[in-house]
Amino acid sequence: MTAALSIGIAAAAGAEVGARVAAAAEAAGLHALWVNDTPGHDALAVLAASAGATERLVLATGVLPIDRRTPDDILARAAGLPADRLVLGIGSGQLRHGAVDRVTDAATALRAGTEARVVVGALGPRMRRTGAEASDGLLLSWLTPEIAADQARHAHELARTAHVALYVRTAADPDAISALDEEAQRYAGYPAYAANFARLGVQAAETVIRPAALRDRIAAYRAAADEVVLRAITASGSLDEHLRFIDAVAEALG
């Protein structure tokens, strides 16, 4: 398996940066732009700007939390986006009770309301089953290549056509290493992620890509899933840093 290769950015980057990054990603031959949806920022607005700057690039959310964004809201906000290249990634957000059922219902409603693909951001086995069976696939994150390959294999056993995408936090510039370490430490402190790391027996720092190992680690992850999303970690989040990130990835692939 050699996965499609995509780039991920934060919605906080804004629509203008998102559009420039999307155009550069398409020119570099990357598969998709995934945008994290975070409080105070709108991934779908960033994707709307990116759609106008591209022709073929897949546009994806990673992920829209259903505890604060209802299916009706998502469908309304996504109505102007090209459904044939749109992926709506959804997740449970801060839900702690009934999360699997709520995500299942949301995935069902979205698939009934749009021709866009729907995938589920999943950590634990129950949510991964939901993603494989009730949507078009999974968005995994914070995994080693070996664990990702095992989870992708299981998803394909549940649903042969399930698309398994994998977020990998990646720094391509040595100046971004401290930001990468801070990102790993932050996620390791979230209870749900901490429990998942403990369940898997790995540390967050083992699941990232550092500049010195860019080529080899990308290759290892691309052998594990259907799509690898290199979530760009840069020193300051500037446009120039994101464009250099794309250049470094293209060079590593060359």
Biggest sheet architecture? 8 strands, parallel, barrel
For the termini, the CA-CA separation is: 19 Å
- Fraction of residues in β-strands: 15-25%
Return the CATH topology: TIM Barrel
Tally of strands:
9
Order of helices and strands: EHEHEEHEHEHEHEHHHEH
Number of helices, where a helix is a run of at least 4 consecutive DSSP H or I residues: 10
Overall 3D geometry? Answer: globular
**Largest sheet, order of strands side by side?**
1-2-3-5-6-7-8-9
**Poorly predicted tracts of residues:** none
How many domains is the backbone divided into? 1
CATH architecture: Alpha-Beta Barrel
Q: Classify the helix fraction into a percent range.
A: 40-55%
Top keywords for this entry?
globular; 254 residues; TIM Barrel; single chain; 8-stranded parallel β-barrel; alpha/beta
Task: Describe the 3D structure.
The chain has a single domain, classed as Luciferase-like domain (TIM Barrel, Alpha-Beta Barrel). The longest helix is centred in the middle third of the chain and has 15 residues. It is globular, with a radius of gyration of 17 Å. α5 packs across α6. Strands 1-2-3-5-6-7-8-9 form an 8-stranded parallel beta barrel, surrounded by 8 helices. It has 10 helices and 9 strands. It has 254 residues and is an alpha/beta fold. The model has no long low-confidence stretch (mean pLDDT 97).
